[in-house]
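Aim 2 progress update. The chain analyzed this quarter is reproduced below.
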Amino acid sequence: MSANAAIRLRILHTNDIHSRFEHMAAIAAIIKRLRTEAGEDCTLTLDIGDHMDRVRPETEGTMGHANVAVLNATGYDAVTIGNNEGLTLTAEALADAYREAAFAIVLANMPQSASGNHAPWAKPWHIVEKAGVRFGLIGVTACFPEFYSLLGWDVQEPMEVLRRLVPELRSRVDVIVVLSHLGLRYDERLAAEVPGIDIVLGGHTHHLLEQPIRIGGAAVCAAGKFGQYVGMVDLEWDARLRTLRKVEATVIPVPEMPRDERVAMLIEQASAAAAARLGQVVARLPIDMPVDWYGESKLGNLLAAGLRTFTEAEIGLVNSGQLLHGLSQGPLTAGMLLELCPSPINPCRVMLTGAQLLLALEQSLLPEFMDKPLFGFGFRGKVLGCLCVDGMDIEYDPQAEPYRKIRNVAVGGRPLLSEQLYAVGMIDMFTFKIGYESLSEGTEVQFFLPEFIRDVLLRELLDQKALLASGRKRFVKLL
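Predicted structure tokens:
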């Protein structure tokens, strides 16, 4: 190759696949084809986080090992992690899953709290050479310090981390690529405010960029969600001037076929291993435990009671839509529990006034709230449903006007007082203004990780007294 010839390079990228294993074999086939077209030594393959999602049995049943096996077999060079890896798996589980990784995990803004060092399986940046061109890869993930601190991580503001690392790396590499699980608006800020970045590959907000957004000298790219697309960035590198001549990007739709048979076989094996683990019996129910999205039910009451006792609160609250179906008398397996309550949502404890609680209770009786579809923030159900409660007794008139249905509320046998503060055990989703806005206005918020609400529910399902108590009515209709 002459000194002034252009070197053609290709970056393939995915993001927010969320354990859609049904697409992974086809993604692998597309990546293999596109890599062959460009040449193995000229292609870089990256994932931008949220590849794992514990809603899926393959991930839950193997604690992420199935995802790592697929990433290895597909031939990824490097990945960063998203909140679904970082916040739903403990540090120990992440280390166990990534010990099998044949790729680099780049994660610059999440050192360990205790030591200040990065986890042994992660590095803040990684240099990889393709066709003589040195790529500097920096990974950053969304910053949720209140949650990450409970898992032993000191998650840091990514902009400041990148302002420090990009200049350090710039003189050592030819092209800087940021693997950004931060969201589109943050990616645009990175491109505009941090000089020296050539390419931002994004995720987190599930945005699809069929053409790159060009800001300053950077190209911002993203490939949507759920493995529906593979992103492709084609580069021309001027070997004489040591500079990028051209950056072009697009996305490739993922069809059902063809599939990479090696990856398909790995997924089948992982599914079998996960099914065996999730087939283990975790409880035996002496009675049926029904659920109702639009009214009070034993299972809803049980989960609310579990949140109250787990968080040592006066009141327990949860929306019935977290529970996708009821349970029948007999054995309960880990897989059945996952199907019942798949959302990776955590318990929390907040202080709320009586007025804030009353407003949420009134809203929970209205069809427009019960039927409200929800998306994101860990929710894996369909609709909000009604409020399930524990520690409260409520008298209401279903025929009364909206926001005037509730006539009396007692907490621990005493009338609910508008200005009084009450300790409430509920779900972290409510603190994000999802569902009932007044529940997000609480103070002294305390989150509990790594427990999911299905872990709390299982504790109650094993408690015979709690099962019997779930049949007591909390809502009483006034005739």
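The first strand starts at residue 6 and ends at 14. The domain at 280-477 is CATH 3.90.780.10 (5'-nucleotidase;  domain 2). These observations will guide the mutagenesis experiments scheduled for the next reporting period.
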